[in-house]
Amino acid sequence: MRLSLLLLALKGCCRQVLWWFHVLLQKTTLKPRETKESYVKLEMKRKVKKKHHFVLVHGACHGGWCWFELATLLRSKGHRVTAPDLAASGINLKPLEEIRSISDYFQPLMEVMASLPSDDKVILVGHSMGGLGVAAAMEVFAHKISAAVFASALMPGPNTVISVSQETDDTPNVVSFGPEELATKLYQLSPRQALTLAELLVRPTIMYSETDLLEKMALTTKKYGSVSRVFIVLHQDKMIVESEQREMIEINPVKEVMEIKDSDHMVMLCKPLQLFTCILDVAERYSN
What is the pLDDT along the chain (288 residues), one digit of tens a residue? Predict the structure, then answer.
């Protein structure tokens, strides 16, 4: 009997504590967007005017896995997401030594684009070296692309070529990211678990010769130039620094420049919600 009374008393005390906690919380609630939780709620309540198909293209040494947070956010709003593993990347089984050119590297992306129905127009999102793949797809499949987003991505143009080779001759060279470079150049502001994931999953990739890029990345104003392009500048990027991003924009102007001020190079893992908002805005305004 005494135990029952004691439990009832404790229950009453807990209710009182919770009531006062609720009152205090109401008085100290932060304004919308001041916390991650409120930001998520606001974005999740955002009305979707149209369902879109996003094709996400990863950068060097990474794979489709790096888009998992963004893909989850987009799918939660009913959008379709395709995040292919480029050749010898992610879980793609092609051996690195069998890749002879940048065309081989981007072949999985080209296969995705070729498989799309003629009435399925996508929003292409490229990150880092994935921007070259986006550009190549724009040249071949311009009629299937509503807009192209370059998130601190390499962005060539009809009159420019961007070299990603570290060699002085025309021999492709294999590169990889070690733990220190990942931690200090790519993921310095990202959550620790994102860095751990990268340390477990990154694979070596190839930097292609300038000759290969000139031959395989020929872009035209008629095709590549017909697709609306948006560039997302990342202020805290230490891999492709802000000045280099803006130089690409100056040489090859885009329809719109967006900015994420507090993101490192891996924006999809560092600031997935801000990237989510940016590309949804692009989809809603540039889709036709």
Answer: 443 433 334 344 444 433 343 433 343 333 333 345 455 555 555 566 789 999 999 999 999 999 999 999 999 999 999 999 999 999 999 999 999 999 999 999 999 999 999 889 999 999 999 999 999 999 999 999 999 999 999 999 997 777 665 444 555 689 999 999 999 999 999 999 999 999 999 999 998 887 888 888 899 999 999 999 999 999 999 999 999 999 999 999 999 999 999 999 999 999 999 999 999 999 999 987
Whole-angstrom Cα distance, residue 171 to residue 208? 8
Q: Which of 52, 58, 62, 265 is catalytic?
A: 265
Catalytic residue among 62, 127, 128, 165: 128
- Total number of domains in the chain: 1
Annotated catalytic residue 263 = no
Q: At what angle do helices 36-45 and 272-286 cross, to 10 degrees?
A: 20
Euclidean distance between CA atoms 24 and 121, whole angstroms = 50
Compute how many other C-beta atoms are within 10 angstroms of the C-beta atom of residue 7: 10
Q: Is residue 236 part of a domain?
A: yes
- Domain of 118: which CATH number? 3.40.50.1820
Which entry of 85, 212, 237, 264 is annotated as an active-site residue?
237
Token pair 């790096």: residue: 66
- DSSP letter for 160, please: B
262 is catalytic: no
Residue (of 45, 50, 108) closest to 80 by Cα position: 50
Domain-located, residue 201: yes
What CA–CA distance (Å, rounded) separates 245 from 264? 13
For this structure, is 265 an active site residue? yes
Residue 32 lies in a domain: no
Provide the residue range defining the domain that includes 186: 51-286
